[in-house]
């Protein structure tokens, strides 16, 4: 096919897509790796079928500085498969919003209150994106009596520590919903359960234990108020179901075991059982008083492993201990949950 015929066909496809975009306000996209002007690799969105450049424009300087689609592009590119294929119909990024301008080469969508991004994927057997936690803001009283703000993970209640630019910057960020008058419209931002409102923290971690997660600083670290389009890819993999604290700690225990964090696996396993039984060790004892011998023995083994982890440190907890603890946890949970 001659170059002129290819251009004509491309223009025809763009015209069809343009009419569709004007009518529906939705554009199916894929992610393309390019080279930026400074020579470094970069990513951009292109429209499925036509390969038109899709640009998201905003007049909000704060949103522009936060780069709300940065994580979405990087994670989608890492997934690959249909998200980087120009014509695959099985997987795509779907942008919805007001189209400002468009021609045969480019379509520009406005990032405003009507904008949204969704990801259609067919498989989850991919490399995990950077750790992402959905968090809530907690008001607390400091030792001197002053009020403070901090982050905790939704459901599990684990403390989330990260400073980003500086500690003052984080405090200002956490106080911003109150200052700008959005606290009343985002009540779930201050609640442990539910994913209607949240702070999404993403990045690499220095500490990931049963009671605290500490994120590394630097460019990979982001923290955004949600809902935000930047959660689209992660939500496509992880449906934001409201897990019970017991289920969340059990999942965390299994993750720690797989990651060779044996002490954390033991502690999370014990927490899962405590949460399932009502919240503490005494309630575990009451719940298992009349349980079959196999169940009470599993509870005792898990308690012993937990004491070693707490009082003798991580050096005494090895793979076998963690495996025994997680198996005991699952045995007790099956009994308590009636499964």
Short description:
The chain is α+β, with helices and mostly antiparallel strands. It contains ten helices and 14 strands.
Strand order of the largest sheet: 5-6-3-2-1-4-7
Structural class from helices and strands? Answer: alpha+beta
Major β-sheet profile:
7 strands, mixed
How much is the radius of gyration in Å? Answer: 24 Å
The stretches of 5 or more residues where confidence is low (pLDDT under 50) are: 61-66
Percent helix, as a range, is 25-40%
Could you give the distance between the termini?
63 Å
Q: Could you say how many structural domains there are in total? A: 3
The helix count comes to 10
Which secondary structure elements does this structure contain, and how are they paired or packed?
Blueprint lengths: L2 H22 L1 E10 L5 E7 L5 E5 L3 H6 L3 H10 L12 E5 L2 E4 L3 E5 L5 E5 L10 E11 L5 E7 L5 E3 L5 H13 L18 E6 L1 E4 L3 E4 L6 E5 L5 H6 L7 H14 L3 H16 L3 H7 L5 H19 L7 H18 L3
Parallel strand pairs: 3-6, 10-13
Antiparallel strand pairs: 1-2, 1-4, 2-3, 4-7, 5-6, 8-9, 8-11, 9-10, 11-14, 12-13
Helix pairs in contact: 6-7, 6-10, 7-8, 7-9, 7-10, 9-10
How would you describe this structure to a colleague?
The protein has 339 residues and is α+β, with helices and mostly antiparallel strands. It folds into 3 domains: 3-120, no CATH class; 131-237, no CATH class; 245-336, Up-down Bundle (Four Helix Bundle (Hemerythrin (Met), subunit A)), CATH 1.20.120.330. The chain is built from 10 helices and 14 strands. The chain has helices at residues 3-24, 61-66, 70-79, 167-179, 232-237, 245-258, 262-277, 281-287, 293-311, 319-336, and strands spanning 26-35, 41-47, 53-57, 92-96, 99-102, 106-110, 116-120, 131-141, 147-153, 159-161, 198-203, 205-208, 212-215, 222-226. It has a 7-stranded mixed beta sheet. A 7-stranded mixed beta sheet has the order 12-13-10-9-8-11-14, with helices on one face. Helix 6 (245-258) runs antiparallel to helix 7 (262-277) and helix 7 (262-277) crosses helix 9 (293-311). It is elongated and about 80 Å long.
């Amino acid at each position: 096919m001659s170059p002129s015929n290819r251009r004509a066909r491309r223009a025809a496809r763009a015209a069809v897509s343009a009419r569709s975009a004007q009518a529906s306000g939705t554009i199916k996209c894929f992610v393309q790796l390019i080279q930026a002007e400074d020579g470094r690799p970069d990513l951009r969105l292109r429209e499925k079928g036509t390969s038109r450049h899709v640009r998201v424009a905003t007049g909000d300087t704060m949103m522009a500085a936060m780069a709300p689609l940065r994580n979405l592009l990087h994670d989608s590119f890492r997934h690959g498969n249909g998200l980087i294929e120009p014509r695959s119909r099985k997987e795509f990024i779907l942008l919805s919003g007001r189209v400002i301008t468009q021609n045969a080469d480019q379509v520009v969508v406005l990032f405003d209150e009507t904008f949204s991004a969704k990801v259609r994927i067919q498989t989850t057997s991919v490399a995990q994106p950077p750790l992402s936690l959905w968090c809530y803001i907690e008001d607390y009283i400091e030792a001197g009596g002053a009020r403070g703000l901090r982050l905790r993970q939704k459901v599990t209640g684990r403390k989330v520590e990260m400073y980003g630019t500086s500690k003052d910057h984080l405090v200002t960020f956490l106080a911003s919903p109150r200052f700008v008058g959005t606290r009343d419209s985002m009540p779930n931002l201050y609640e442990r359960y539910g994913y209607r409102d949240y702070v999404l923290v993403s990045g690499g971690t220095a500490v990931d234990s049963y009671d605290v997660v500490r994120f590394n600083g630097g460019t990979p670290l982001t923290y955004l108020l949600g809902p935000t389009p930047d959660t689209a890819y992660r939500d496509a993999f992880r449906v934001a179901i409201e897990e019970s604290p017991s289920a969340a700690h059990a999942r965390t225990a299994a993750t720690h075991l797989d990651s060779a964090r044996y002490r954390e696996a033991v502690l999370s396993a014990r927490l899962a059982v405590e949460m399932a039984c009502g919240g503490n060790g005494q309630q575990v004892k009451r719940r298992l008083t009349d349980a079959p011998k196999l169940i009470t023995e599993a509870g005792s083994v898990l308690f012993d492993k937990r004491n070693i982890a707490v009082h003798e440190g991580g050096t005494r907890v090895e793979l076998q201990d963690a495996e025994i603890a997680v198996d005991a946890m699952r045995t007790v949970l099956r009994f308590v949950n009636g499964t």
